[in-house]
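Notes, p. 3: input format for complexes.
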Amino acid sequence: MESIIQSQKAYFKTHATRPLSARLEALTTLENLIVDNEQKIKEALNKDLNKSSFEAYTTEIGFVLHSLRKTKKKLKRWMKAEKVRTPLYHAFTKSYVKPEPKGTVLIIGPYNYPFQLVVEPLIGALSAGNTAIVKPSEFPSHTEALIESLMNEAFDSRLLKVVSGGVEVTQSLLEHAYDHIFFTGSSCVGQIVYEAASKHLTPVTLELGGKTPTIVSEHANLQRAAERIAFGKLLNAGQTCIAPDHIYVHASVKEAFKEKLIQTFDAFYHTESSRYPVIINDKHFKRIVELIDHEKVVYGGTVDEAKRLIVPTIMDDIQVDDAVMKEEIFGPVMPLLTYDNLETLIENLNNEPSPLALYMFSENTSELESVFDRVRFGGGAMNDTITHVANPNLPFGGVGQSGFGRYHGYYSFKEFSHFKTYIKKSTRFDPGLNKPPYDAKKERLVKKVLK
Ligand code: NAD
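Output follows (451 residues plus nicotinamide-adenine-dinucleotide):
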């Protein structure tokens, strides 16, 4: 590890990664690698999580290809030094902001979108001119092995090196000094990463999780709400950081909405269980199964331990102190809670750790705005779930307990760049204000100018 990191640092110091041409070449290598191996990537994701070809393409492969192509198109503009306005008291001076690479970065990925969630930050790292060490999650072992073999074959290890392995590998990677660490995963491991980074004063991005609430108001289009919530919840069997975790439905429409949600879950997945994505490993399977309270199940509730499959499940009459409300579910289990008063709900939501996302379904704009203006969360959607993540013009990231830093599109480039600022001053004239002795006349002049 030490030798990989040192060789990347030495390579960075040669300035080889800085030119636009070098960055575009790296991004093209990555793009070709993905296009040429689309089928292999799909197969690995299918073996690890039983992801369908459609889910694999839309949420992992197509997602990053779109991002790569957009980045390649815009990179020249993003890299330009920007000339900014200079105040009058800096006469004969020009001021600039210039993004430059940070150096050698470490990217640590989670298991749920094991390809996308290391490639997407990698696009940011390479476009910003850094060298990168990538540590994919060890649980989706087929995807991990594929990422390692494809990338290590295609790239010079001084520019990009994939390191595979379990917790011990991540821990020993974290002992070293980097110029940035980009971590996606759980809040508790996020804390470990943050602590390790602090020893070297390394800047970090923490893309964490949390319990994403969804509100269905009495003014909602209930059919659309049911469809869009089912889509967001059941994608990847609920193993999505921004999946709707639980629903607060207004008491007056609870029964009507529940029926529609049951019908939609049934229509989406009932007949073909072979199409259900599965839970990543036994530990998470057992954890989610324990959250199912069979007395409260109104749909689903069956599981297949051998396949690690949990049938989409809805639980009714859930209270905030039920087990399922104590942790991020990260599985296809949907608890229904009710509310009567939106003001009280807003207050309660702001007393919870700030989630990565929030969704609300309502046809009443002022009601939507009262929630979106006052509840703290990373990002979200009015009358939809999940899809805000797929707009590369929107920065993606958490707040409070759900993390800090943001990425996607230009924001990825920004996250992995240092914005160096400098001024350029003419030597032809000097007003002399900086030259002692500093008398009262000079002070009066300064006061006047600063007004
Ligand atoms: P995790 O935190 O268990 O693991 C993430 C990475 O950390 C893995 O590569 C793993 O090897 C490493 N790791 C695990 N334990 C470690 C330890 N003790 N010391 C050092 N490294 C360690 O996360 P996960 O279970 O793979 O992913 C699920 C979590 O990630 C959920 O909480 C989810 O919400 C979150 N998530 C967030 C986003 C986002 O964009 N914000 C995206 C996907 C997942």
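The chain has a mean pLDDT of 96.
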